[in-house]
Amino acid sequence: MSTTTYLKNVAIVGATGHLGAHFVEELAKTGKHNITALTRGGNDKKPPNGVKVIEVDYNNEEALVTALKGQDFLAIVLAATAPTETHSQIVKAAAKAGISYIMPTAYGADITNEAMVRDDMYHQGVFAKVKEIESLGLNHIVMACGFWYEWSLAFGENFFGIDIKSKKATFFDDGTTRLSVSTLRQCGRAFAALLSLPESGATPSLSDWKNKPFRFTSFRLNQREMLDSVQRAQGTSDKDWDIKYEPSNKRVADGLAALQTGDFTGFVKAMYSRAFYPSADADYESRHTISNEILGLPKEDLDETTKWVVENINGLFSRVP
Fold this sequence. Notes:
Elements: E1 9-13, H1 20-30, E2 34-39, E3 52-55, H2 61-68, E4 73-76, H3 84-97, E5 101-103, H4 114-119, H5 121-135, E6 139-144, E7 147-148, H6 149-154, E8 162-163, E9 168-172, E10 179-182, H7 184-195, E11 212-215, E12 219-221, H8 223-234, E13 242-246, H9 248-260, H10 265-275, H11 284-287, H12 292-295, H13 302-311
């Protein structure tokens, strides 16, 4: 394979999900790649025309290896509810199939932030996935996109602390800690732009992010700015909302306690609240160089995106991750 050409054969696990669908759509627009969607079957959602679909049992290593043979790049986009061993099974099959690069189900995480890896269960899980990939001699690229903005805004108090339907908001600490977030569409565009680069031998190239976080954003903002945008979309103000304040560290503790009882929403509450610690560990844009400009990603409009969420809040997403 010539290193000055892009990786042509791309496989995506979870190609019809909320994120994977954007990966496929934006990658297909480039017209450069042979795209293969791996699915377990039984899904009414179908990828665009021209995408090869292979139904496979993720517990069948031989079938997985056969499906992955000849692929250059594999993106694994599994739901948070997927069995933990599924990711490992796919990675091991990818190694046997000879795939060069894996983008693991690690979306949003920054594995170079030691404090987040220490404190946050999601980051700990991501770190373990990355170490397994490395142990098998494969390369990884972790998409450090921050939380998905429209998704997180839509799902209410345990996420960004804002419940649009009930007009209730909980500010973590004082509500002014900023973090980096991305829209699902921006993630798709970034994915396509990355895979349209030469693998190496040019600047920029895909290998610039080999075994590193791939950082980009849509917005850098805090809860107060999120709520302001929601209120502009609704034509409301603080007097129309029930607003309270709660320490972020208390929310983390409460979330972990709930998780111990088997309540998975506690995991979500702890994960989001930790990102809003005053240390601003999730503010990638102020801590690192982001790739928006070098990849030609568009500048998005916060109020336009928020308005879309507000107007489509009923039935916007079919399930909580």
